Structures are given as structure tokens and as C-alpha cells.
């Protein structure tokens, strides 16, 4: 836990992330979890996944934008991405973070963010495409739910991620049920205090299963986003017991993580979507993935050592 917390803490330090970012693409280790820094590289990765029968959700990495100009630029970029997905006839959608779309801008961030989100949704609806809203740290939970609720009342082509580690999530699910939305269930990737979130894996897992049972009760479209074999087993059991139709659920996993499980789920004929991140702002995302599994750090160190010293151990 201490190692996880330390890596997570480092991920919030810009001088650390900048230093890692300078090396990550050059030395190749970032490409394990990131589909590239530019859209064309990401599209190529997505086409490959589509060929393997996997849907994609493309995310342009970045968070916590602080000016109207930046947020508007991000919005234009997302509309461009949707058009590109359509032009390439991809089986996929996009995922967005609301702090990229101006939620932190002061004053008026919430209104700006809702307006930009609606603009993306309108453009996507014209192409019969949908978007998914990621859930960020707890300071943004209320605003994210409010904005989702407001835009979902007007547009059907929007889904939302919710986090099983938060005590509040069961109530949030009930609040959203009348909208019959698509909900992506995740465990939660941020560090949250015990006043608001389960800390033990077994408690998070138990809540994940409880929430999943609700999401598969017919009122929602469930996106089951996890690499945890026990959660996958629970989901497959419920789907079989309740004969859940394939348009009412999908599994979701992250690009580069547990490719064995991705293959297994797809091989069993379940719909699977891969979350594909790309862009130059990849370091905080990359470090959250490291903090989830500190063993990944060895993979990074090994790459750096081989690049620096060569496989024979001599410094280059
Ligand atoms: C499609 C998708 C979208 C997501 N969107 C959000 C979001 O919007 N907001 C949010 O807070 N979180 C999001 N997450 C992240 C999520 O909250 C978890 O942090 C992450 O998925 C790890 O949890 P897990 O369910 O895989 O289970 P865990 O119990 O963490 O892991 C189970 C097993 O999966 C494997 N594994 C998990 N993570 C890694 C890793 N980084 N590297 C290698 N192996 C790993 C390991 O084998 C591990 O034993 C998303 C996850 C997915 C799959």
C-alpha cells in the first residue's frame, strides 16, 4: 500500500512527471499502456483492435485544464476525433474527462464544461456515435453527476463511469436509474480517504459485485470495466443467470493490461471494448497504472536499464 501511495503521490508532482515524460516515449516503456502521442498512431492501434473484434473507446490524455481557450481547444479536438473515427469506419466511441473540458475554470467552469460537453454530444449524435464520461477524483463527483444528468436528459448518446470504492455510489446509481443510462462500473483509480471510500480490496470488490447486480437488472446498459478475474466471473455468472442480452452489457479493459483476459472474454463471445489512451500528456495516467500494480515499475526500470546500459550491462 505504501508503494502504491508513493507512486500515486509522485503522479501528482509535475516536475517528476515531466522528467519521466521526457524519457518514456523515447525509451519505449510508455507505449506499453499508451497508443502513441499523436492521433494517427492511436487510430492505427484502434484499427488493429477492431480487426480482433474489439470495440474501442479513444481518450486524448490530459486533465485539469484552467482556461476557456484551452478547454475549447480540447472540445474541438474531441469533435475532430469523433469525425476521424467515423471517417475510418471504426467500431468505437470516445472517452472524455470533464476537467479537460473546463470544469476547473474560474469562474463559470461548470456551465462552460456542460456547454462544451453538449457541443461534443451534438456533433457525435450527428454521426450516430456516443461518448463516455470518465469519473475523476472525489472533488469532482457531484459536478460530474450533475452535468451528466443534465446532458443525458437531452441526449441519449452519453455514458458515465462510476466508482465502486465510494460509499455514495449505490445512491448515485439509484439517482441515475430513471434515465436508463449506460454506466461504466470501475473500482476507482484515485486515493480517497476512509471517510468517503472503502479502503480494503475485499470491501471494494464486494461493493463492485453489489453494484454490478443493480446495473444488470434491466434498468441500465452495464459496462463492466475491470481486469479482476473474480469480478469477471461474477459478471459472467449473472449475465448467464439473467440471460442478459448483448445490447445491455459489455466488458471493458484498458489498452495493454491483461491481454490474456481480453482474449478470454472475447473468445467466449462477450462484447469487449478497449479503452485506448493517447497524447503527449500521458504521464499522470501512466503513473496511476503503475500505482495499481507496482510490479509494473520493474518493467519500466528494465526498459530504462537496457536502453541506458544495453543488454550486456555496458553504459551507452
Ligand atoms: C475501461 C476502463 C475504464 C476506466 N475508467 C475509469 C474512470 O473513469 N475513473 C476511475 O477512477 N477509474 C477508471 N478505471 C480504472 C479503475 O478504477 C481501476 O483503477 C483499474 O481498472 C484497476 O482495477 P481492476 O478492476 O482492474 O482491479 P484490481 O483489483 O486493481 O486488479 C485486478 C487485477 O488486474 C490486473 N491489473 C489491474 N491494474 C493493472 C495494471 N495497471 N497493470 C497490470 N495489471 C493490472 C492485475 O492482474 C490485478 O491483480 C477504468 C478501468 C477500466 C478497465
For the biggest β-sheet, the strand order reads 1-2-3-4-5-6-7-8
Poorly predicted parts: 311-316
Work out the number of β strands. Answer: 8
* Helix segment tally: 12
- Which class of secondary structure composition applies to the elements? alpha/beta
- Total separate domains: 1
Mean pLDDT, to the nearest integer, reads 90
The description of the largest β-sheet is: 8 strands, parallel, barrel
CATH A-level architecture: Alpha-Beta Barrel
Shape: globular
Distinct small molecules: flavin-adenine dinucleotide
String of helices and strands: HHHEHEHEHEHEHEHEHEHH
- CATH topology title: TIM Barrel
- The whole-angstrom Rg is 19 Å
Helix share, percent: 40-55%
Description:
There is one protein chain. The protein is an alpha/beta fold and 316 residues long. The chain has one domain: TIM Barrel (Alpha-Beta Barrel), CATH 3.20.20.220. Helices cover 49% and strands 14% of the residues. The protein has twelve helices and eight strands. The chain has helices at 2-11, 14-24, 39-51, 68-87, 109-126, 141-154, 169-176, 201-215, 229-241, 259-267, 283-292, 295-309, and strands at residues 55-60, 92-96, 131-133, 158-163, 182-186, 221-225, 249-254, 272-278. It has an eight-stranded parallel β-barrel, surrounded by six helices. Helix 4 runs parallel beside helix 5 (109-126). It is globular. The protein starts with a helix and ends in a 7-residue tail after the last helix. Residues 311-316 have low confidence and may be disordered. Flavin-adenine dinucleotide is lined by residues 134-135, 161, 163, 186-190, 225-228, 252-254, 257-258, 275, 289, 292-293, 296. The site of flavin-adenine dinucleotide has 23 residues, from strand 4, strand 7 and helix 11.
Amino acid at each position: 500500500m505504501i508503494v502504491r501511495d508513493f507512486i500515486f503521490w509522485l503522479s501528482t508532482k509535475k516536475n517528476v512527471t515531466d522528467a519521466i515524460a521526457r524519457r518514456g516515449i523515447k525509451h519505449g516503456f510508455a507505449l506499453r499502456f499508451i497508443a502513441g502521442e499523436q492521433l494517427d498512431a492511436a487510430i492505427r492501434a484502434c484499427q488493429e483492435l477492431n480487426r480482433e473484434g474489439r470495440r474501442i473507446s479513444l481518450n486524448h490524455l490530459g486533465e485539469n485544464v484552467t482556461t476557456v481557450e484551452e478547454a475549447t481547444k480540447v472540445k474541438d479536438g474531441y469533435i475532430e476525433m469523433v469525425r476521424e473515427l467515423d471517417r475510418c469506419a471504426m467500431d468505437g466511441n470516445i472517452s472524455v474527462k470533464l476537467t479537460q473540458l473546463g470544469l476547473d475554470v474560474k469562474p463559470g467552469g461548470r456551465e462552460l464544461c456542460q456547454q462544451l460537453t453538449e457541443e461534443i454530444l451534438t456533433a457525435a449524435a450527428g454521426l450516430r456515435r456516443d461518448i463516455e464520461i470518465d469519473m475523476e477524483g472525489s472533488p469532482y463527483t457531484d459536478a460530474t453527476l450533475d452535468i451528466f444528468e443534465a446532458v443525458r436528459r437531452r441526449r441519449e448518446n452519453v455514458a458515465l463511469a462510476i466508482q465502486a470504492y465510494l460509499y455514495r455510489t449505490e445512491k448515485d446509481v439509484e439517482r441515475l436509474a430513471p434515465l436508463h443510462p449506460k454506466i461504466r462500473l470501475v473500482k476507482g483509480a484515485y486515493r480517497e480517504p476512509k471517510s468517503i471510500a472503502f479502503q480494503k480490496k475485499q470491501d471494494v470488490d464486494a461493493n463492485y459485485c453489489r453494484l454490478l447486480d443493480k446495473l444488470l437488472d434491466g434498468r441500465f446498459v452495464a459496462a463492466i470495466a475491470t481486469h479482476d478475474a473474480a469480478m469477471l466471473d461474477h459478471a459472467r455468472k449473472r449475465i448467464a443467470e439473467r440471460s442478459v442480452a448483448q445490447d445491455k452489457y459489455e466488458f471493458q479493459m484498458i489498452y495493454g493490461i491483461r491481454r490474456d483476459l481480453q482474449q478470454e472474454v472475447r473468445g467466449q463471445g462477450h462484447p469487449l471494448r478497449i479503452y485506448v489512451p493517447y497524447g503527449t500528456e500521458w504521464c499522470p495516467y501512466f503513473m496511476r497504472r503503475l500505482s495499481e500494480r507496482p510490479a509494473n515499475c520493474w518493467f519500466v526500470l528494465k526498459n530504462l536499464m537496457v536502453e541506458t546500459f544495453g543488454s550486456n550491462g555496458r553504459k551507452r
